[in-house]
């Protein structure tokens, strides 16, 4: 416990694990959608990447203690037997694994994002998202014409959920439940 190397490794791990715990808590929310989960994952990856340039809070505290030679009243010493973790390499490996195992990138996610009004251009055309809705309907074996008309209604009145778009929205919710929970 008096090792400078151990203390710095502990600070790095604390910062990284805190971010992963935060992501885990957010993903467990009942209301999380696949699109929101993707956003949260990408944000966590950006935070972890930022730790490569600017240390997290606990690593910063450990580095300060290392420079002072003590943590509170506990003197710190170097331990030649301990090889410190390469922080940038560790963080990049963590990022690579998150991207590989939890990434939701792909055509379906892109297609699902068309139903999120936050992803729309400021003035979407009447056929905005038509190709995506058709692909989703083929994937889930839903009526394309009905869903396309529902999407057009949704574009004209984004504050209401058209009945003809509800089957597609229900499929989205099913995908969310199976993919995120």
What does this molecule look like?
The chain is mainly alpha-helical. It has two domains: 4-102, no CATH class; 107-180, no CATH class. Helix content is 63%, strand content 2%. It has a two-stranded antiparallel ribbon. The radius of gyration is 23 Å and the shape is rod-shaped. Mean pLDDT is 89; it is low at 177-181.
Layout of helices and strands, plus pairs?
Layout: H1 4-27, H2 34-50, H3 57-68, E1 70-71, E2 74-75, H4 87-102, H5 107-112, H6 130-140, H7 144-156, H8 166-180
Helix pairs in contact: 1-2, 1-3, 2-4, 6-7
Number of helices: 8
Mean pLDDT across residues: 89
The gyration radius over C-alpha positions equals 23 Å
- Lateral strand order in the biggest sheet: 1-2
Beta-strand segment tally: 2
- Give the tally of structural domains: 2
Span from first to last CA?
38 Å
Q: Helix/strand-derived class? A: mainly alpha
Helix % is 55-70%
Molecular shape: rod-shaped
Major sheet description: 2 strands, antiparallel
């Amino acid at each position: 416990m008096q090792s400078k190397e151990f203390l710095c490794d502990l600070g790095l791990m604390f910062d990284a694990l805190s971010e992963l715990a935060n992501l885990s808590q957010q993903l467990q929310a009942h209301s999380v959608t696949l699109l929101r989960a993707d956003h949260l994952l990408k944000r966590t990856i950006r935070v972890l990447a930022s730790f490569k340039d600017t240390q997290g809070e606990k690593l910063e505290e450990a580095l300060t203690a290392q420079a002072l030679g003590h943590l509170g009243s506990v003197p710190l010493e170097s331990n030649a037997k301990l090889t410190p973790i390469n922080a940038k390499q560790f963080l990049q490996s963590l990022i690579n694994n998150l991207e590989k195992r939890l990434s939701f990138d792909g055509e379906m996610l892109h297609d699902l994002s068309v139903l999120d009004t936050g992803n729309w251009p400021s003035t979407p055309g009447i056929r905005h998202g038509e190709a995506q809705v058709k692909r989703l309907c083929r994937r889930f074996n839903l009526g394309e014409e009905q869903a396309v008309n529902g999407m057009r209604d949704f574009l004209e009145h984004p504050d209401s959920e058209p009945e003809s778009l509800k089957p597609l929205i229900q499929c989205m919710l099913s995908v969310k439940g199976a993919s995120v929970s």
